[in-house]
Predict the structure.
Amino acid sequence: MFCLHCGKEITDEAAVCVHCGRQVKPIQKTSTRQPDPEESSTATKVVLASVGSVVGILGLLILIFAIQSFIAAANEFDSDDRFAFLAMMAIPGILLCALSVSLFKRAFRRG
Ligand SMILES: [Zn+2]
């Protein structure tokens, strides 16, 4: 090929002209940053954060309802039944809160 600057013939592999010393083609970057396949797009992050907050609020509401019912039913039911009800309601509530936390972690993993 020929140098773009001085027009003299140089080897095709040359990055710099041997005659005028100027750069004839962009220097190949040794480490090109590949886009992280794990990196989620902004839209995905927004969806994850939205779902995470809804799930988290739902989980907290279930927990509050469970504790409130546990206290309110103090005079109406045996303590065994109340504890069974509390456990039955608290487990999905805690699971939803944990799911919410994991969704938020995924949404904000890369800052
Ligand atoms: Zn040249």
